[in-house]
Amino acid sequence: MAFGSSLTVLAGAAAAALSLIAAPAVAHATPHSAEVHNVSRGAVVRAKTADQVTPFLAAHEGLTGHQATARAAAQQIHPTAGTAFKDAGTNRGAFANQSVTTSLHPTNSGTVIYTPTMYPAGGSCIEVTTVYAASEQAVEAWDWCNNIDFEASVPIDSNFLSRYTNGSSAYAVQISQTNTSQNTWTASLYNYQTKTYDTLYTSSGSTQAGTVGWDINELYSDVDGNGRSYACADMSGKTFSSSGIQVNLNGSWQAASTSNSDARFDRPASEFDCADRSYQMIEKYDHWQVVG
Fold this sequence. Notes:
Blueprint: E1 8-9, E2 18-19, E3 40-41, H1 43-48, H2 53-59, H3 61-64, E4 76-77, E5 80-85, E6 91-99, E7 112-119, E8 126-133, E9 137-143, E10 149-155, H4 158-164, E11 170-179, E12 184-191, E13 196-204, E14 213-222, H5 230-235, E15 239-249, E16 252-255, E17 261-262, E18 278-283, E19 287-291
Antiparallel strand pairs: 1-2, 3-10, 4-14, 5-14, 5-17, 6-11, 6-15, 7-8, 7-14, 8-9, 9-10, 11-12, 12-13, 15-16, 15-19, 18-19
């Protein structure tokens, strides 16, 4: 296919909302030789996620400046909000604690929620996204250099939470350039049981997504007859966040801030077609939060 281009679930009767507790800070390190537990890769992932490709590409039109091969229907929306990473010319990676939950199951087949989703600046081959679709809920790696498709996937389930969230319901993800001459990038998740990074996916080549990066709230959604996004009902009473966002500039990790990041990808709240939704950049630009 060518392309030109910490949530803690409060389950009591009085608690319908999900509130985020930021995951503890973890040290940056070279990924461990171990693979992410229960990860699938390659053709099996491409087949399983075939119905997500058009929504993902359409949702990224405003980020990459390119159009999806198939155009979204007029009643479908794909707005974004969050942190944009500036291309400083020395970008070597990005890190964040990303919220995750097992309780979000979109009911509309035309709605996919990618929240949060992270792509480092500097020409990364990999984007790691938290996917909530009617058919599955997973943390997935999208390859922007080869196949331009989902290439790795791990289901969001109790096994994932026990290994990769440490009870905080936010997973720590790091995407780093591991070979500059070949533009090799590696995405890894921090395993709180082994206290090492497990490899999710590795890819080399030339990116088709550009050199500006992001860590954002993003969705692709149908709109009902009343002009309301179906994602609004799906996300109602839930809080999503990305915290501790960092960028690697020439080997030095630093918090996302006004010097290395901005909000160029933020769309007006009205474009989310959800009057109940609220969004806040809590700390520019290393912590944002959205409440459905």
